């Protein structure tokens, strides 16, 4: 780990250097089978149970391209405003690593399926930055190494390593930006915003579950610095497999301060891959970074080139959903949100769940009230995203309907939500199991009101003398007696009726 003394103050970095970013995002596609064979791709299966001779690279096994994978690659390219190749092919990327069963990766090199695109990225203050996309190409994922016995989970210091080839051959799209310049102090923020926008786009396309915590979306962050008067980019480092949005921003910021300290002391930057440590927010050296020549690319001899017809490409263009940026503008208008209100919803990841709750029958205001208050607090305490809470938008909408119908009070509704989160069933089931339905029988309420009035004769006299605000004390007593299951408004009406009877 780089010591804190070897870092330059961030403001000084910006005064002396211009950062240059290059972001490579790897996306596992949510196909049913792997890219070149029929093995399933379900996450979390027992190690080495989703493999076959093809994805293990056994002699004589031949690959067959996954048509859905190609279709997803084209749709991603179109959504990123890319040109779609009229002719492209796969190549072999040769390197040795234990989790590469074939000792090469079937990828695309100089002939990708999509190229020359862009994605507009909105920062928190509304500033829009256009990030140019160099390419989006198809490839297969590698297997997974588990290093056992060390303190860090990495190979250094481990006693032994285990290999799981279930992931080997899973369809992967790698999206590579062109150099991102001119962002200055906001470079880390731009990096995070780009990966966020890309994740939202891929989710809208329904081509991946984009679960960074499970590795289905991973970012390699390339960072270099150039002096203010320099004409050429500096030497870059590549921080590999950063697996959260916050970590993308932290990794870029750390590398800027580390590289600046090295350069200012007269040192030079080593072109290398680096690893990001979530616990410290720092990067550490991995290995020297190869160049394309080191991979000895050559055309894959077992796969024929592909030539997507223009008719097919245009048919796929028609399947594109409403893009996230356009959807946000529409929602902002429909929900009557200010720019800060919309940004707040985006920052807590609430837009999609609120929209789904509205689609299930709730009003935007009611849906917002639930997701950004009680449920946001619950997600924060559990350390998960709102969408990962064990309650669905449809269930939240059902709770709201029960409140609107008078079956529940807001307080009782919170108890119902707690029951759903605890796995006690659907809202209606929780209401029955916990006995949470509002007491709407006037005869039962009158008994409780009369008892409360009899217990506080001084309050009764105040009400009779015209001090109706005193009724609040009786309302509280009735609510306590009914365990909060009475309609407070109806209780107040009955109190005034009974007091003046």
From TrEMBL:
Q: Which InterPro entries match?
A: Asn/Gln-tRNA_amidoTrfase_suB/E (IPR017959), Asn/Gln-tRNA_Trfase_suB/E_cat (IPR006075), Asn/Gln_amidotransferase (IPR018027), Asn/Gln_tRNA_amidoTrase-B-like (IPR003789), GatB (IPR004413), GatB_Yqey_C_2 (IPR023168), Gln-tRNA_amidoTrfase_suB_CS (IPR017958), Gln_synth/guanido_kin_cat_dom (IPR014746)
| Pfam families per the UniProt record, alphabetical | GatB_N (PF02934), GatB_Yqey (PF02637)
According to its UniProt entry, the protein's GO biological process terms are: glutaminyl-tRNAGln biosynthesis via transamidation; translation
GO molecular function terms here?
asparaginyl-tRNA synthase (glutamine-hydrolyzing) activity; ATP binding; glutaminyl-tRNA synthase (glutamine-hydrolyzing) activity; transferase activity
HAMAP family from the UniProt entry = GatB
Q: What does this protein do?
A: Allows the formation of correctly charged Asn-tRNA(Asn) or Gln-tRNA(Gln) through the transamidation of misacylated Asp-tRNA(Asn) or Glu-tRNA(Gln) in organisms which lack either or both of asparaginyl-tRNA or glutaminyl-tRNA synthetases. The reaction takes place in the presence of glutamine and ATP through an activated phospho-Asp-tRNA(Asn) or phospho-Glu-tRNA(Gln).
- The protein here is known as Aspartyl/glutamyl-tRNA(Asn/Gln) amidotransferase subunit B
Name its species. Answer: Kibdelosporangium phytohabitans
Q: What is the lineage of its organism?
A: Bacteria, Bacillati, Actinomycetota, Actinomycetes, Pseudonocardiales
């Amino acid at each position: 780990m780089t010591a804190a003394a070897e870092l330059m103050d961030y403001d000084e970095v910006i005064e002396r250097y211009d950062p240059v970013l290059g972001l490579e995002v790897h996306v596992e596609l949510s196909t049913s089978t792997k890219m070149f064979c029929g093995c399933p791709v379900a996450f979390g299966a027992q190690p080495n149970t989703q493999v076959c001779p093809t994805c293990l690279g056994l002699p004589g096994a031949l690959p067959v391209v996954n048509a859905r994978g190609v279709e997803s690659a084209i749709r991603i390219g179109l959504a990123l405003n890319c040109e779609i190749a009229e002719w492209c092919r796969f190549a072999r990327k040769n390197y040795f690593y234990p989790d590469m069963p074939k000792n090469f990766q079937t990828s695309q090199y100089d002939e990708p399926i999509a190229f020359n695109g862009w994605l507009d990225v909105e920062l928190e203050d509304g500033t829009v930055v256009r990030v140019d996309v160099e390419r989006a190409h198809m490839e297969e994922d590698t297997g997974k190494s588990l290093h056992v016995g060390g303190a860090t989970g990495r190979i250094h210091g481990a006693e032994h390593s285990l290999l799981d080839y279930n992931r080997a051959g899973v369809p992967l799209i790698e999206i590579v930006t062109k150099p991102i310049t001119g962002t200055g102090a906001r470079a880390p923020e731009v990096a995070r915003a780009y990966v966020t926008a890309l994740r939202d786009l891929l989710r809208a396309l329904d081509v991946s579950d984009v679960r960074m915590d499970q590795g289905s979306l991973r970012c390699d962050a390339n960072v270099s610095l150039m002096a203010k008067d320099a004409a050429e980019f500096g030497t870059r480092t590549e921080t590999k497999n950063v697996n959260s949005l916050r970590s993308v921003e932290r990794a870029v910021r750390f590398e800027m301060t580390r590289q600046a300290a090295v350069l200012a002391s007269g040192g030079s930057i080593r072109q290398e891959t680096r690893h990001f440590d979530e616990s410290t927010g720092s990067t550490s050296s991995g290995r020297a970074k190869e160049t394309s020549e080191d991979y000895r690319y050559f055309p894959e001899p077992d796969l024929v080139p592909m030539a997507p017809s223009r008719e097919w490409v245009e048919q796929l263009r028609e399947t594109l959903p409403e893009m996230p940026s356009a959807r946000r503008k529409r929602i902002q208008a429909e929900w009557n949100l200010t720019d800060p209100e919309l940004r707040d919803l985006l920052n807590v990841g609430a837009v999609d769940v609120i929209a789904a709750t509205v689609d299930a029958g709730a009003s935007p205001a009611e849906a917002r009230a639930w997701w950004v208050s009680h449920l946001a607090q619950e997600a924060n305490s559990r350390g998960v995203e709102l969408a990962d809470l064990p309650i669905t938008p449809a269930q939240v909408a059902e709770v709201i309907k029960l409140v609107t119908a008078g079956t529940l009070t807001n307080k009782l509704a919170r108890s119902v939500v707690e029951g759903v989160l605890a796995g006690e069933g659907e809202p209606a089931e929780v209401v029955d199991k916990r006995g949470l339905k509002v007491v709407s029988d006037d005869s039962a309420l009158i008994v409780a009101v009369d008892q409360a009035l009899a217990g506080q004769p001084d309050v009764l006299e105040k009400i009779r003398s015209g001090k109706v605000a005193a009724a609040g004390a009786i309302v509280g007593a009735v609510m306590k007696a009914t365990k909060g299951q009475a309609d407070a408004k109806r209780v107040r009406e009955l109190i005034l009726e009974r007091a003046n009877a």
